[in-house]
Amino acid sequence: MNTDDDVKQFVTGVVSLQKDPSRAVVIAISHDAVFDLKEEQEPKAPAAASGVLNPGPGFPFVKAVQRVNEKLVEKNPNETLLFDVILLSSKDRPKSQSEVANSIKHYGLEITRLCFCNNENFTSVLRSNKVKLFLSTNTDYITKAQDTGVPAALLYGQRGTATLDQLRVLFIGDSLGFSEDTTDRPKDEDTGEDQLQSVQLTQSSLEDLVALIGEMRRKFGRENSPLCACLMTVCSPRNVCVRALKRLRAWGLEVDEAFCLAGAPQSRLLAHIQPHILYDHGLQYTLDVPALS
Amino acid sequence: MSLDSRQAVATHDGRADASVAANGDSKGSWGDTEDSYGHSGPVNKPKSGAVRRARKVEGGIFFPKPENAVTIAVSSRVLFRTETEQKVFEERGVEEYLKYQVEHENEPFAPGPAFPFVKALETVNSQLRELYPDSEELFDIVLVTYNHAHVGVRLINTINYHNLFIERFCMTGGSSPIGYLKAYHTNLYLSADAEKVREALAEGIAAATMFTPEKLIEVSDTQLRVAFDGDAVLFSDESERIFKTHGLDKFFEHEKEHENKLLDHGPLKGFLEALGKLQKKFYEKGHRLDCPIRTYLVTARSAASSGIRALKTLRAWGLETDEALFLAGAPKGPMLEKIRPHIYFDDQMFHVEGAAEMGTIAAHVPYGIAQKHPHKKDSSKSK
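C-alpha cells for the assembled complex are given below, as produced in the milestone run.
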C-alpha cells in the first residue's frame, strides 16, 4: 500500500467530540454524497454563500449522526463510543477540496478528516482508517466494499424530507433471517464459494457494527431516542423476519421498528419509513429503491 | 470511474412490479410442496424466473400485491387479548411493558375480538384460491401495530400458534400507523384505539374500533358474515343530522321528499363494494346460493318508508346486501344475535354496546353526528 495515496487532510477549525479514536465508530462517506458538487448542471438552489456547496443527499445523515453524538456526550461527557464521520474524495478535483473544507465549517459539521483515494486503493483506504461502515449512493462501490469485508450501506435519499432529529438505520433482514445451514437460502447459480466467503467476512464485521449500534442505542430510552434502528424483510415469510429480529438481538441490537413486506412493493413503505441508510448485503433486495429522489 | 460519479440504483419506482407481471400472470417460484413453515403452496406452477431477484416470497407462498387484494389491517390488541400487558403498560410504563413482553415471549396470546373475523377471511381465501388459482383478488391480512419490535417475536409466535395466515406486518415502534395503512392500500383498519380509527377515517380509510366483549357467541366457520348499519356507515350521516336536530317526524318527511335522491356515501361503502366484488367471483363459478360471503344491512329505518331511499341508493351504486333488515327503531341486539355476524359495524356506541351485551362482535365507526350527540340509553327499558 502506497502511503502517499492515503493522504488525510485534517480540516482545521472544526471542534471534535472524539475522546478515544480506538472506540470511535468510523463511518466513511463519499464527499459528493454530502455536498452537491454538480457543476455541469443548473444548481438546484443558489449556493449558501460563495465558496460553499449546497447540501447533498447524505447531508441529513451527517446532521443526524452529529445529534446522536451530542446526545451521547450529554449523557456522559466522557463518552468514548461516538460516531466519527470521515469524507472520501478523489484527488483529481483540487478546487472542490477547499470548497468542501469551507462547507464543513459553514454548516458546523463535525468532520475532521478528508481522505483521498481513487478506484484502485479505495478499499485499502477504508481498512487503514478502520472504517466500520461505508456509505454511498453508488451501488458498485457498495458492492466492492462489501466484497472485501467492510459493511457498506446505501444512502437513502428523499431530498428535503429526511429528518435531522433522529438517525434512522434500516437493515434489510432477508439474508439475516436464514438459518445457519444454507439449505433454505434461495438457490442460485451464481452463489459460488467466493460469494459465500465474502458474505461470511462481511457478516463478522456486520456483527461488530450491529453490536456497537446496539450499545449506543441502549444508552437512550425507548422513546425520544436520537437513534432508531429498523428491520425490514422484503420477500420472506414472517418467520424469517422473526429470526432476523432474534439474530440482531443476539448481536446486541433490539430494533425499534420491524416490517415484514412479504412481497409488497418496497418504495411506498420506504418513503414512509424514511431511513437515512439502508443496509442490504449484496443489494439483492433493494431493487426499486430510489437512491436519489 | 472516479469516486465522484454517482450511479443511482435502478429507479423502477413501483414499476419494478412490472417485471413480476400483472395480476395472475406472475411467474414466481412457488411450487406445490410444503415449505418449512408448514404452509403448502396453492398451485402447481413450474419454477421459472430468477429466484434471487424474485419479488415473490421464498418458500412457496404466494402473496397478492396490496393494490389487487382486499387489505385488512388489524392491530395486535384486537386480534389478540392483551389486557394484562395493557395494564402493565399503563401502570408501569413502556420499559417495564417491553420487558414483560420479552419475558413472556413464548406464551401465545388468546384470541381477541377480531380473531373470528380473520379466521373467516382465511376460509374465504382458501376457497377463492381453489376456484381462481392465479388471482390476486384475495383478502390480505396485515398486522399493523404501534408496538415496538420487541413485541414482534411474541406476536409472531402467537400467529404461528394459532395457525393464522398473516405474513405481512408493520411494527411502528410508537409512531402513527396511518401512513403505513395508506402505503398498503388498506381497505379496512380495525383497532382498539378510537383515536387511530378516527385518524384513519379522516384519511379516507374505512376503519372501526373494536372492544373485547364479556362473552362471544359462536359464529359460522364456513361463511363470512358481515353486517352494516346504514346511516353514517354505508351512507353519510345527512339523514341522521335531520333526525337529531329536528326529530323523527321531520326525518320521515325529509326521507319521503328525497326518496329518489341518492344518499351520499359513508366510510364503509368501499368495503361493502370490495366484498361484493369477491362475491361475484363466487357467483360466476356457480356458488350463488352457498356463497361463503354473506352481507347484511341492519338499519333502524323502516321498510315501508325511510328504508326505500336506502335501497334505491344501494341499487344505484350497483351494490346490494344479501339481506336487509329494517327494524323501524326496534333494538338491534336480538336480530344480530340471530345473524351472528363475524363483525357488525355501527356508528352509535349505544348500538355497539347493545350488540356486545348479547355476544355479537360489534365495531364502532366513529363517524358523523352521532359522535357529538350520543344516544342516551333509556333507563326505563330493561334490555
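Chain A touches chain B through 65 residues (CB under 8 Å). Residues 1-6 of chain A have pLDDT under 50 and may be disordered. Further analysis is deferred to the final report.
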